[in-house]
Structures are given as structure tokens and as C-alpha cells.
């Protein structure tokens, strides 16, 4: 059975760049790697509804934090069987965003701490009720909110797309960064590793640490 590794962080943190670098490093070691990203805007109707809501096309749906969280969670529920199949057929499954994004953004919108009622409700929904695979490792790519916002704005110009309601809310992004820090510090759901998204990350050294950790734990990659 493969290992499920998730990259988390703010919009503009550099998650896609890190995912590509990690995939290349794992490939270079001869490992079978499957990748994915959430929300799956082009693959799942719940993700399509999320996109419509975030761009103001579904009335007041975005006013409901729990309603939006359920849509995000249903996207992952629909993908769960595929993730399990990838884990059976690959050494590593690497995902850009997962349940912790839902937890961090929901807690930030409600101005609750990571040990508050929303995060526990979300954990119960996604992992207990929907039975999502639990990550073996969650990577928090930490960057200051203003740095992430600048990167997201540049990406918007390069890709000729509009940022959504969450991406353009600076206060929300700052609170979300704090929520991510709390989730990582608490080891929410599974082990976390915090990475400096403003530094030149040594991806090979990171992968080497994974091998050491999983070998010590008796797991195979």
C-alpha cells in the first residue's frame, strides 16, 4: 500500500510548484507516483458548484460556511475510491489540497480556533462519515499572507483568470494562515511537516526524510 502525502497552504503558496518538484524527485528514485488536486473543478459536479459559488453565480450559497464545506467534502468523497485504487497501485499518492484546506478555511471564516467546533465537525464528516483515506503525511507550505496574495495576483494575470471570493479576501487569508499553523501544531488527523515557502526548499532532503521515517515505522514505500 502506498503513502498518501498532502500539500496544504494558502492560495499562492506554491503548492503546484512543490508538487511538481516532489513528483520529479520521487520519479528519480524509481517510485510510482500518482498526483491529484482538489477541488476537482473539471471532474466533479460538487467542485463545479464550488467554483460557481466562489465567483458569485449561486446567490447567497457562499454565506453558508457549512454548506460550502459539504460541497468540498462531497468532491473528495466522490474521489475516495480512486484515491484508494491509486494507493494500491503506487508507492506515493501526492495531493494538492485535501480535507485540511476545508478545515482551515471554514475555521477562518467562522473565526474559530483549530480546536473549535467546526474543525471537529469537519473531521467527523470527511473521515468518519465519508470514510476518506487518512493522509500519512501533511505538508504545510507556509508563506506570509501578503506574499501569497502577491503570487496569486501574478498568477491571475499570467493565466488570464479571475481570483475567487476567498483568494481576494486578505483578512480571510491571514486568518486561514493562522488556522493552518494551529492544525499543523496539533498534528490534526495525521503527522505534519511545516516547510518555509519563501526559502529554496531542498526537495531531495525532504524525500530522504520520508524514507527514513517510514522505514523506522516499518512501512514500505
UniProtKB/TrEMBL annotation:
Which top-level enzyme class is recorded in the Swiss-Prot or TrEMBL entry?
Answer: transferase
Q: Is Hydrolase given among the entry's keywords?
A: no
Q: Which reaction does it catalyse?
A: dTMP + ATP = dTDP + ADP
- GO MF assignments: dTMP kinase activity
Q: Which UniProt keywords apply?
A: ATP-binding, Kinase, Nucleotide biosynthesis, Nucleotide-binding, Transferase
**One Pfam family, short name please?**
Thymidylate_kin
Positions of the Thymidylate kinase-like domain: 7-162
**EC number(s) on record?**
2.7.4.9
Family in the record:
Belongs to the thymidylate kinase family.
Q: What does this protein do?
A: Phosphorylation of dTMP to form dTDP in both de novo and salvage pathways of dTTP synthesis.
Q: What is this protein called?
A: Thymidylate kinase
